[in-house]
Structures are given as structure tokens and as C-alpha cells.
Amino acid sequence: MSLMPSTSYFAAFIFVIGAIYFLLVLSPLTYSRSLLKKKSAGIVRRPQDSCKGRGLLSVIGALMYLTSSRPDIVHATCVCTRYQAHPTKKHLKEVKKIFRYLRGTVNMGLWYTKDSGFEITGFSDADYVGCKDTFKSTSGGAQFLGEKLMSWSSKKQDCTLLSTAKSEYVSLSACCAQVLWMRTQLTDYGYHFDKIPIYCDSKSAIAISCNPVQHSRMKHIAVRYHFIKEHVEKGTIKLYFVKTDYQLTDIFTKALPVDRFNYLVSRLGMCSLCSQELDRLAMLQ
């Protein structure tokens, strides 16, 4: 089974905003470039003029719609939404780059194979101080059902934290909440799970989550994030360390080099779903 956005909708929107004339790129977000707010020169007074008559809000709204079936553009879209109130030419350039990437990957989508199991698996990651304007970190999460990607997220954290371990701890709590929701839904269908694995690339965050004692250095973190300790103690979830090279949620927290980006896209289960590829995949089922 495949999951892909409406190709006709996407093709029509590309034509409306003039993206049909854009040059293609291999990734939706520029690597090693940080977007910042500019309160002086460069602010676009009428951002609708730069998108061929379409307002920037409607363009980003279209991208948000596509993120429901295109996890490869989730982080890039979420970054651009932070600057939609007062965009500069640099911000508009990044929005256009997402469409340049999408124009070359119109047929990309998620492919769900049969008989891949119903085991829940979670991946959690955080980019410390990912937002250079507010100095807040970015949380990323991915939840799998067997080998099928079911849920994904990229979100700026709502609190400023003092270390990488603490930002990873907050991201772990968010991932745990989503995993528990999936567990509750599957319980209604007769599936019961315990010791659900969640993978994180921070040994310090795992140690904090497994420590039932509330340390004084963690008192500035909101209470709602500490519920993960209870579920670790009960055995509902189990935390595992994974090396950064195998951390699938890197794609939801930061801009990546093209090779690394394409590797993670394939690991998430995305592939080209043109008619020839669909026929080939159907033969393998």
C-alpha cells in the first residue's frame, strides 16, 4: 500500500506559484545555513508579490498539507513557518527551495509493505538551540508500526533548556506520549504491548529518564515532562541508545547534507511511486 499526496493538487499548485520554472535541488533545506529574523533591511513588505500572486501564508499552508504524507519536508516547512509573519528575501528563498525540491520528487511517497508486523517502535532526537532567535531546541520524533512509519513530528520546544541532555529528555517525553497514544489505540483492537522500545542517541537523557529520583538540577523543567519516568519504571516503555549514524529522526531536527538526507529518506520507507515503480513493488509483495 502506498501513501502519497494528491499529485494533481501538487502539480496545479506548482503551476499557480510559478514553481514550474524553478531549478531542481536535492534537499529541501540549505545545509549549514541558519535562518534568523531581520528587523532592518530586507523585509518583504508584500510577500504575496514574490509567489506569483499567492500570499506566503497560503503557500506555507499548502506545504503543511503536504507534510501529512511527505515526512521529508516536515522540518524544512516547520522552520519556514517561524518567519511567516515578517519574512525576508532570504526566508522566501528557502520556501521556494522546498518547492524546487518537491518539483523533482513529485512521485515520492511512503510505501507500506504487507506482513511487516505490528510492533511499536519509537525514535527520538533533539537539536540543541536549533532556533538561533529564541535559543530553543527542536524536538523530532518518529513512530513505526513494524517497518511502517505511522507518525512523525518536528517541533520547536516551548522552553529554553540549559544542556543537550535536557533537550533530549524533553524530546523523549514527547515521543513517549505519542507511543502511549498508539498503544492505547491498538489495545482497542486486541493488541497489547509492553516494554515498547524507544531509541535515543543521548545516554545522559536515558539515564535521567531511568532515574526515579528527581535531581535538583532538573527542577527548572516543567513537571509535565517527567511522566516518562513513571512509564519506564512500570515497564511500559524501554529506552535504548542508538548511535547518531543510525538515528532516523535527524531528518526532523536539522538540515543535513544531501547524502545523509537521502539515506534517511530511504530508511523512513519513502521511494518513488511512479507507475513503473508501483508495478515493481507490487510484484515483490
From TrEMBL:
It comes from Tanacetum cinerariifolium. The chain crosses the membrane at residues 6-29. The lineage of its organism: Eukaryota, Viridiplantae, Streptophyta, Embryophyta, Tracheophyta. Keywords: Membrane, Transmembrane, Transmembrane helix. SUPFAM superfamilies: DNA/RNA polymerases (SSF56672). The keyword Acyltransferase does not apply. The keyword Transport does not apply. This is Copia protein.
